[in-house]
Amino acid sequence: MPPAPLCPCSSGLRYRECCAPFHRGEAEPPDAERLMRSRYSAFALREVAWLWKTLHPHHPDRARPQDEVLRELRAFAQTHQYPKLVVMDRREPDADGLAQVLFFAKVFEKGKDRSFVERSDFRHDGTGWRYLSGVALAPKELAVPPESLTLATFPR
Hints:
Helix content is 24%, strand content 27%. The protein is of the alpha+beta class. Strand 4 (116-124) and strand 5 form a beta hairpin.
């Protein structure tokens, strides 16, 4: 029997031990980084229900019809490949409960590099960590290699 597949979030763990319990609704990610990793894996595995569930109530897409957002997420996930995720930095929740994660997502669409660096904001909604917002930049928009950035050096 072949070994269980590695998790798409690039944690080095097997999917069943990493993001699968979150996607199956068996657990909530313990922190913002694990939520972000589970969202990357959800794109890679087309787990769009998890992507919807993990949007913070104040995220703009939450004001739109759920079926419309799910349809768009599914279409995006199906037309892209997600070979690697690099987490460069993270910030624990501040006094207002805002946590941040800086990551480099390797993403390809029909062979074209669509990779980006994103500074994501997360808040706990009383049930779990949720994606609030993000600022994404393409590597060509950066003056330095993406992996060298930190939250402090990410262009505002």
